[in-house]
Amino acid sequence: MRDFNNWFSCFKESIATYDYYADFKKVIKNVNNIKIELNILNSLIGSKNIETEFEKIINKYPETLKCIPLLLAVRDYEIYAKDDEGEFTFNFKKMNYTTDDYKKFMAKTGLFDMLSNHLINNLIDYVYGVEIGLDSNGRKNRGGHLMEALVESFIKKAGFVFNDTYFKEMKISEIQQKWGLDLSTLSNKGKTVKRFDFVIKTNANIYAIETNFYASSGSKLNETARSYKMLAEESKNINGFKFMWITDGKGWEDAKNNLKETFDIMEHIYSINDMENGILSKVK
User: Fold this and answer.
1) DSSP codes joined into one string, 218-268
2) Which residue stretches of the chain have pLDDT < 70?
3) Domains and CATH numbers, the chain
4) What is the C-alpha to C-alpha distance for residues 122 and 10, in angstroms, rounded to an integer?
5) Among 128, 165, 237, 275, which is 20 to 30 Å from 80 by CA?
6) pLDDT at residue 18, rounded to an integer
């Protein structure tokens, strides 16, 4: 029997690679898409008559409006705002209010002050910074992909071959069709669509694998542990089918008890340390 505390003590702080922190290709592409419009708006920096000049710009170059949300670190073309004058949803792709309303928006959000008081020197440089900040929200997705890539590298190292003895992103229905298994208990008789990150085929079994890495805590971890515990229990009576969960990360610290409950009943729950020690080469 494995000891949970010893197992958990080997969890990693991070699996971040160098390109995890920022997707500069994406940032540069996004800025280049609006570089001309930003250069036009640059004329407002240090302006002594910014309201009049702003009105002239959006009348002559209405396409510059699409840059405004990004100056507030907002991706959408619509921005909602309210005050004692009422509620407004400004559209920055196609003007839906008067130019006076858009000037009020610029003034009340503080953008006019930032530009006229020369708090920044160049909108292109400023937007690069905004894009980097917004891109940091994508780290969660990149983190998920990092874990998948790491697990796949160990699957290959164990000798499994892509689209021959291991497969990616397979639905329950696809597993049933390919190997003739009855997985109706896992899909609520076909009512639930479930997709596994990886599927491994050995001589004796089909292993359906879920992977994740949690660098930080959150309520989702408890839910994940409970759902995978249920999935493991539902899989026990299916001949030739095994459910495997590969997880890691110090984010589990706050959900440690729930993870232990799943660990105690689940045969195939592994960590990065387990993979490093060749566990995938031992599955049968």
Assistant:
1) -HHHHHHHHHHHHHHHHHTTSTTEEEEEEEE-GGGGGGHHHHHHHHHH-SS
2) 137, 140-141, 143-144, 187-192
3) 4-16+138-281 (3.40.1350), 18-137 (no CATH)
4) 47
5) 128
6) 86
